Amino acid sequence: MRFSIDGKILQQQLTSVNKVINSKNALSILDNFLFELKNDRLTITGSDQENTVTACIEVLDCDGDGSVAVPAKTLLEITKEVNNQPVSFSLNEQTGEIDLIFQNGKFRFMGINADEYPRTQTEEEEMQRFSMPASVVLKGIEKTVYAVSQETIRPIMTGIYWDIHEDNIVFVASDTHKLVKYTTREVKPGFERGFIMPAKPANILKGIIDKEDVVELLLGDKGATFKFGDFTLSCRFIKGNYPNYNRVIPNDNPFVITIDRVSMLNAMRRVAIFASKASNLVKLELSQGQIRLAAQDLDYGTSAEEKVLCDYQGNDMTIGFNSGFTLEILNNIGGDTTLIKLSDPARPGIFMPMEQEPDTELTTIQMPMQVID
Question: Residue 358: pLDDT band by 50, 70, 90 thresholds?
């Protein structure tokens, strides 16, 4: 088994596939890439048992088909040093030795029998499938993944819920303190289905997908496969039923704040410096035409306040929010102007851009905190 390839292309594909490999694996074989050469196509596979990423590359001057597992860390270090020149990869199938030859030298290291590498079993003929622009997948993940829970005590909350309908897809994520619902009508799948995608493959997909690609999505009983460009990503679903997210979103929040998103973001960031490290509480004191943000840390005797102009015609109100969550929401909600809809200090606040993107709707809610004067 022998082939030549551009070192830069190889290094780029290895870096993308490496995103799925854990720093510590229960199976040592998963510390490796699986190389499979057939005709003039090299397939590179990485896996953590739950998720698998493959990349395909056309190679030059290939001789013989074959497969071998290659130490991922070693190969990445090598290719970073020679990524601006062509390299030749040669496997001695009797000894398992691999020679990586570049312009002025050669690296030699040992490969591992490819039969030891676990394979992903998929029965594509039994899967539901449809295609969508990669930009839709990218926006759906970007708008929601920051809100998934980090607490493994409720696994179903640690992923993005894809609520698929005949004429739209709803992406939902929540950590119980905040919830994001992103609806897109840019895709019409033609069937009803729902699944929970873990945060790790969602972040991998976000990192390697090209928004110009078309994504083919294949849905099985236990997992999904995403095919796009030169890549394939397979992941297992999180088991369980996602909560009814629509019941959490208030239907009647009559008091509406219209505010410049960046002004609010910057003021919140400054005031939050002096919030209590235990609670991150920042108070929003609402009055006609302005919001007064206030925070204090009694342990250190520090405090801060700042006023931000806004359009607000409702009742005077004081409501508390976790500044860390509010900053995440404002950073990810997009748009120049933000609407904040409230009803009373004990009920969730709704955050949304004043101007929604075409054929989409983004709604974010945040639970309030108790304010003690």
Answer: very high
